[in-house]
Structure formats: C-alpha cells, structure tokens
Fold this protein.
Amino acid sequence: LVVRAADKFRQAGIDMRTGHHVEHIDAAGRAVIGSGPEGQPFQMAYDRLLIATGASPIMPQQPGFDLPGVVAVKTMEDGRAIKSRLQHNAVKKTLILGMGYIAMEMSEALRARDIEVVMAKPRAEVLPWLDPELSDDVRRELNDHMVELYTGFAVDRIESAGDRLKAVAANGRGLEADMVIVAIGVRPNSGLAMKVGLDLGPAQSIAVDRRMCTSDQFIYAAGDCADAYHVVTGKKAWIPLALRANRAGWAVADHLCGKPVSVQGVAGTGVFRVFDLEVARTGLIAAEARAAGFEPATVTVSARSRAHAHPGASQIKVHLIGDKRSGRLLGAQMVGREGAALRINAAAVALHAGMTVEQFSQSDLAYAPPFGPTWDPLLVAANQLLKAL
Amino acid sequence: LVVRAADKFRQAGIDMRTGHHVEHIDAAGRAVIGSGPEGQPFQMAYDRLLIATGASPIMPQQPGFDLPGVVAVKTMEDGRAIKSRLQHNAVKKTLILGMGYIAMEMSEALRARDIEVVMAKPRAEVLPWLDPELSDDVRRELNDHMVELYTGFAVDRIESAGDRLKAVAANGRGLEADMVIVAIGVRPNSGLAMKVGLDLGPAQSIAVDRRMCTSDQFIYAAGDCADAYHVVTGKKAWIPLALRANRAGWAVADHLCGKPVSVQGVAGTGVFRVFDLEVARTGLIAAEARAAGFEPATVTVSARSRAHAHPGASQIKVHLIGDKRSGRLLGAQMVGREGAALRINAAAVALHAGMTVEQFSQSDLAYAPPFGPTWDPLLVAANQLLKAL
C-alpha cells in the first residue's frame, strides 16, 4: 500500500530513506544501525525512535510453501503477483488456506472472476470468534456462492502435481488447485524490539503504554506491531486492525509535539462483508470472557432489518454476551444481509462506557420503518439477555 | 393502527371496552366516568389507572380546514381516506402543510404515484432541527424529486376553488391543489389529565417520573401523551416517538407486576428516509444546547460512506455539537445516501453514557472498506470538534 509518493514526504521536510534496512537498535547510544541500498553500513542517531514495522502474514515452514503459485496477501506486490498469475496462468481453481477476513474477501474476489474456490483450515469452526449459530450463517453464505469449505484440514505440505499444486494433509488427504493463497493470520514484526530487549505483549507484539511508549522511554511503537489495552478486560491485547494502527500513529506524533495524549483501549470491533452477508463483532466472545474471569451469559436473537410493514426486510442475528456478576455488557456479534455492520458501533461505544446490559437496553436508538423495527435488534437482544443475567 | 384484534385481547382475559368514551377521572374516588357505545353513562373503579391516550395531529382553527379533501395523517382511517381520494378523485396535485417526518414520507409516497407535490410551512428553515448545511441537502433532495417547497408560507385559510382547494397566505398568495395534507405536528392528548389536575410537562404533555407515575400515585401515563427526561439536559422533554412510547408501556406493566423499573431518559434520536437520503439526529441542536445552559461548539464535516478504494461511495455529512465548558458530547446529526441512519446510534449511546467528545473520539468503531473509511465519519467529526472545544 502506497499512501503517498516518497517525494511528497521529502517535500514535507521528511528525510525519508527507502531501501535502508535497520538491523539493530543501540538503545544506550540512541542510534539505529543497519545497511543502506547498496549494502553499505549506515547508522543514525535519534532523540526519539518510533517502531512502526507492522505485521507479516504467517507462512508455515512446512515443505512446498515456497513453490511458485503459493502466495500471501499483504503487500501491493502480493496483489500484483496474484493478478498477474490470474491473467497469465489460466487459474481455474484456487485453494485458500485460512478462513479469516482476508480469506473471506479473497474468496469473494475470486468467485467474481468465476474461479473455483476451496477454503481449508485445521480447526473445526469456520469463524471461532463468532457464536456457532452465526458462524453457520457465514458457512451457508459461502456454500451458496459455490465456495467449498474443508474445516479440520491441517496442511502438512504442498506438492507440485503436474501444472497444479496439491496441499496434502497429515492423514494423506489432498486438495488440488492452480494457486494456493495463504491467509492463516499475521504476526507482529517485533524482531528488532526483541533483539534490543523491549518488553513484549500478547503474541510477541511490542508492549506500549497509553502514550505508545515502549519499555524504553525513548522508543515508541505504533501500528500492527504494537499491543493495546482492551477496554473490557483492562488487560493487554493484540488486535492488529487499521483504525487502532492509524490512531496510534497520530498519538505518537501528538505526543512528540508536546500534546499530552492518552490513547484509550480497543474494543476489538471488526466487520467484514462476504458476498451478501455483513458480519460484525465487538468485545469479548464467551470463551474470552470466561478466560478473563467473567461469568458470561449469552443470548442469540433473530430480528428484522426493517419494520414489519416495510418491504425488503431480512433477518439480523444478534449474539450478546453479559457478565452475570456485574451485569456488564461484554460483547456483541451480528450477522445479516443489511444493517449488521454499522449497528455494531452502538455496542462498541457501550463497551467503551462500561455500560451494564440494563443501561444499554435503555438506549434511545433510532427507529424508522426503512431501517429497522421499533426495538432495534440490539435492544431486543439486550432485553432477552437481561433475563439470563 | 391495529396491532391486535379486539377478541385477541379478550381471549387474554382483558376486559376491553371499545366505544367507551372517558370524560372525567374521579381521582379521589379512583374511578373513571364517561359514556358507553350507545351514549349510556358508565363508571369504572380502578386500583391503578394508565393514561395512554397518545397524541393527535394539530388541525388549525382557521377557516377551510374542515373542507373535504383537507386531511391529516394519523389513524388507519386517515390513510384509507387518502387512498380512497387518490383512487376516486383523480388527485393530480397535493399540497402538504408542514415539513416534518410525516410530511417528508407522504411527499415520497405521493411522488411514487406520480402526483405533483407542493410543501409549505411558515418558518424559513426546511428542517429547523438540522444544521442549515444538512437541511439544504434535504431541500435539494426534495427538489431533485420534483417536490416544490414554499418556506415562509403561513396559511391563513383554505378555500374551495372550483374542483380544487386553495390555501391562501396572509399576504394573499395562494397555492392550489386537489388535496391538502395537514402534517404540521402533533399535540399530546392530555385533556383528561388536565381536567383532573395532574402535573403537566413540556407542550402540555403529562408529567411522569421514571416509573411512569403521574403526580397522582395511582395514575400512570405512557406513550405519546407522556413526557420524559432528556439524558443530555436531565430536564423534561416531550419527544413523542415509537420506541419511547413502547418502552414506557412495558415499564408500566413491569411496575404493576411488582418488578421495580426505572426508565432512563430519551436522547431524542430520530431518523427518516426521504427519497434516497437518510436523515438522522440525536441529542441537542446548538440552539437547544444554549437554551439548556451549555456553551456549544459545533463542527460539520463531509466524509465518505465507503473506503476510498471501494466503488459506490457517497458523501455523509456529520454535524456534531459539544460543550466548551465540560467537553461533553451534546448532539449529532447526519445526512447521506447510505450509512447515516444506523451510524447515529453510536452517538446516541455516547449521550446516554455522558461521554465527552474526547472519549467518544477514541471509540473503536467498525472499519471495513464496504462500510466506511478507516476513521468513521463520526470520528472524523469528533476529532475536528475537539479542536473547537
């Protein structure tokens, strides 16, 4: 992704060094050390250092993941490589490893080009962070669009099979395709931070405080490489998503310019569209809630996306999680053909405010026939959850 | 509107008396007094009384508002009368008096039948509860759909003009049409409550506490006839909308069944669609904020409804109001072709939680390219408003 051309940065007075590889941070001497574009050594002193190294797709170390046609989806180069392969190699069938956001979005893009799509993953659940009933709706949507799903399929190796590729599972089962997209997740690029001994957070992300400062007071970290406080648990979490990354970057700039900032936590809000389905979540799922010491109660309701009298309504499923001891709202999930993605924001704000389910249930949410029933699906769910608390 | 047939109520053990007109409440004797279906007197004792008399359209007392073809839009009978007139009287042109929700929705319904529509109102603003820049978008949308708008047109009388009707303004200007729809607002049906001396709230609605109890401890009021606390001002407000009315009814039932309930206030959240435009508001407008003793700062931003790279994006305008002294968020308004109506709920929840603009600006709202930019339009506006506070 190129947000701005290099010379735009330079015009803004920024000494931008592309092709410079930082290999080491000398924290005591406050300098970075590495190699320049022609391999020549370079060193640069700093008053403050920002590590914004992002995250990288996980590429398994098993045999065959380095074969041509096995690709990740992260950089613009990745995208170009996939497009070029589609144009020149007559890809008829693609195997996608993983079933997360990226995998779902790629499945849709490939089906739009009329390419056969097979998705595989080791775990049994399509989306483990969704309630099974909601996850089943996603599974159905994928199947309805001719995407084949193989859960419980753990790839042992990838082999060449004539002109094609074959992903082979530990039990010998194989899946053949013309291209394999690896979308099994990302990990934080925290190698430099680890080498210099900075404190680490969940998943080996770089631990930062609310000013985005690492355990070295002269070094900041922001973006997908850094961790965050979760507003529901109050504990550290690593949820690498765009808004948080962007917000953290601005916060470092504000802080360096002498503007005191204290960045609040993340609620873990995430949405995606897959074919005609909107999928949204915020906060904790029941298992996360239990792990964090809550006593979760859950409810799943189905409600209309528009008022009874209004044509074109579809069903929205809402799953809400609350804490039996405190009555607090802990999380929300929604799946539907319309009105699920944007609705999740109301629950996200409630999580930031630490609202109880009862307080949330009394919210004055919008009603007009084209946009929902008198009681918003979130309120219907909250009213039901109150009975279970 | 008939939610349920009368015999369904009776099957549920409810002694439902249709055609009974209550003329007086004997508060000391705890009885209602009135006349039955054949005009015979009737009297009924109560332990607790619920007044749920709703609201009625305002019909001006000027000459001609009783002419055939001058109609209000409230009851199912009104709707039938309008439909019948459209079918039998060859209505080619309709004049709508008023420019509120009902007026807007009727204009759309009539244009869908290819009937000429003219709207008129005395005040200069199309929607006085919207920021002028957003209100202008609504004006443009109506004009684009061939709805003529006459602001500053105060009707003095309605006259017959051959087969047609003519609304005449004080200055002699006239607007001719085949039908006149009066949609200039509603007033609470609080006559009974006034007669028996119950405390009244804003706009002569019936004053109730958080249990929906009136100033007589044996009399409740709920629905469009009752007032409510506003969560931003903490003061009484009369905002007759469906969700609050419904919620208040349930609360009375809970309370009578021995379940202690305390109904929170309203945020004044309202949405409607007019042609292809979604219009939404919650909380106070700047003028209301000043009247309530706040020192409002406002900002209006325009943002994309989808991410930059995503086709089909349109503009969403967001107007936010905050308090300079406390930093509190006071209100939000949005207008756009998609994503405005449901987005308002996030701001509504923030008002319930009493969030500052800064707290709200740090919310972890959803992002995915089909649903908005990385920074949700509400967050873009909150970030801008922070600078003005």
About this structure: The longest helix of chain B spans residues 242-256.
